[in-house]
Amino acid sequence: MNLTPLQKFQNSQCLDPDNDFGPLTIKAMRFAFSLSIEQTANFAGQCAHESNYFKRQFENLNYSYERLLQIFSHDFDTDRNRILSDEEKQVARILERKPQQIANFVYANQNGNGDEASGDGWLFRGRGPLQLTGRRNYQLFAAAMNDQEIMCNPDLVVTKYYFESALWYFESNNLWSIAKKTNRVAIKNLTKRVNGGYHGLQDRINKTINFEGWLRAA
């Protein structure tokens, strides 16, 4: 039986590996990662929202035609006139429900990736609670972990460094200082830095406050 990253963490902390992110697990997380109550609540709140309580391991790129046009309209707008022609929309039709081809197309020539033919988009697609994405970020993370094997086996971000990838994101983007408070302003600012916008803000607030309650309970 293959354990999930959450179960592996629970095992390492002598907890029941039930794959349920509850009070005992978050309290163990606080001490394992040497975080304050507020930092733990914020970290878990953001990650739990992004990863469905640490159950999502890989980026889901199995998009419909309609969803592709919603999320990646800029990538299909090759002439950058902000209007998708029938020809540009046809590319989305061709890519619909083809995750590997989608990744190689939308992530080409950005964040350190090569062109579409290089396959970097798929190889360095999102992994971990906060979706580590792109060759450049994988290189930086591999250096931080002192493990260059990550570059030829990116799945290590899931199988070996799942939580570390999210901790590294917080550290490398100077988010721990924002995470010292759990008021609405702090959570909103943190959401902007993690998400690039405010998608799911209320859910992130609810989770963070709930997790703080678990951590402060006797």
From TrEMBL:
Residues forming the Glycoside hydrolase family 19 catalytic domain are: 115-171
Pfam (any one): Glyco_hydro_19
| UniProt keyword terms in alphabetical order | Hydrolase
Q: Look up the domain of life of the source.
A: Bacteria
Instruction: Give the SUPFAM superfamilies listed for this entry.
Output: Lysozyme-like
**Record GO terms (molecular function):** hydrolase activity
- Do you know which PANTHER family this protein is assigned to? FAMILY PROTEIN, PUTATIVE-RELATED, GLYCOSYL HYDROLASE FAMILY 19 DOMAIN-CONTAINING PROTEIN HI_1415
Query: What name does this protein carry?
Result: Glycoside hydrolase family 19 protein
- Whose protein is this, by species? Zunongwangia endophytica
